[in-house]
Fold this protein.
Amino acid sequence: MGVKVYGMPMSTNTVRVLAALNEKGVEFELVIVDLRTGAHKKPDFLALNPFGQIPALEDGDVVLFESRAINRYIATKYAEAGPDLLLSSGTPAERAVVDLWLEVESQQFGPPIAALVYEALIKPMLGGATDVTVVEAQATKLEKVLDVYEARLAQSKYLAGAEFTLVDLNHIPYTNYLMKTPKASLVTSRPHLLAWWQDISSRPAWQKTAAAIPF
């Protein structure tokens, strides 16, 4: 049985997993779980993820959910293929820096950018009206995070050091959507952040992943 990913190609969390699989050159099948029809709340999917959220991954007898946990599994199981996304051959300090920035992505970057992207991009696609007050409030929060990133990237090519890692990869899906909103200037106004984004978004694995996103 090959790798199966259950999700939707417009879902940032699903795309995060697909991007990791593509970086590792792992063949997979994307099984569509259509949130619009409530497929994620039906028994077949709840057997994979009892919380009813996409994505989920099946790899033989292994069943996982939560995109960041799935990506650590992919990076570990397929460590010998493609880039060493967790710096498994690095020093304890180098691996700790990867863990640190993975936490920063999840806890500091993730919440404001997710709220901003939903309000500015996703909500209008679903027929709702963007609340500009919410966008501005989340942009203010995100600005503070990105100021830290700009300072970090002035000293380091990638967020966890000299090599592309899972840290950088996990940022790509939401940053990709941010660049489609009026708040793309949060990235373009910061030269080191912009150079980093241009670098990681031009990777062949991401280009392959992005080609499957419907917008």
About this structure: DSSP finds nine helices and four strands in the chain.
